[in-house]
Design brief:
The protein has one domain: CDGSH iron-sulfur domain, mitoNEET-type (Ribosomal Protein L9, domain 1, 3-Layer(aba) Sandwich), CATH 3.40.5. Helices cover about 5% and strands about 40% of the residues. It is built from one helix and six strands; from the N terminus they run E-E-E-E-E-H-E. The strands form two sheets. A four-stranded antiparallel beta sheet has the order 5-2-1-6, with no helix packed on it. The mean pLDDT is about 95.
């Protein structure tokens, strides 16, 4: 899994795939990327809706990789 805090934008969560437990059932998931709000302005929290552009959100970038 890799978490990327994009400069002035969202958190990008890249999942390589694996197993998750949902409602007590184990599921296999494939690779996917989700984008989470970092500016606090999204109307679709916790997901990013692009509001960071219109409110001039500023933040540094960072990257975390978990193996």
């Amino acid at each position: 899994m890799k978490i990327i805090a994009t400069e002035n934008a969202s958190l990008s969560i890249k999942i390589n795939g694996g197993k998750i437990t949902k409602d007590g059932k184990e599921e296999n998931i494939g690779p996917k990327t989700i984008y989470l709000c970092r500016c606090g302005g999204s109307k679709n929290k916790p997901f990013c809706d692009g509001t960071h552009r219109s409110i001039s959100f500023h933040a540094e970038s960072a990257e975390i990789e978990i193996e």
